[in-house]
Design a protein that fits this description.
By secondary structure, the protein is α+β, with helices and mostly antiparallel strands. It has four helices and five strands. Strand 2 and strand 3 form a beta hairpin.
Length: 156
Amino acid sequence: MKTRRVGPLEYSTIRFFMVLNIWWIGVRLYKSPIVAFQVVRTLIKNFEQMIGEKKFVRAFKTNRKYNWDMFNPAWPSQGFNAFFKAHLMEVKSTKGNQQILRRLLVAITKRCPLACEHCSEAETLYKNDVLSFADFKNLIDPFVEKGVGQIVYSGG
């Protein structure tokens, strides 16, 4: 796996194409380039409001895909498309489309040594794990089939 940091010009270029990709997802979703533009603009404004003065200034390229952080799927990918389709639908839903889960958080073990204050599993740490790998796969597969954009594994 080869990873490298993306320079400023490449960063600006890929950001443009990434936003264009999100707009195209919106065109297919809303059947209108104008509505798609309006929803993407709202999505960007919401994002800028959320992060405040901070700006993403770096990205990394790994195996022909670009990554900004661990909370968003790499671009280009099917996961990215599904993730942002769900994001667009949160801004403006469409008739006949049900809400899609953007992110699935899966705790894979109860053996985490960190004991963070915010941990929802703090009471059950170090107890026996209950599910096998096959059980996890059977639980996760329906979410993948319905188009979850990202699966985050957590817990030790």
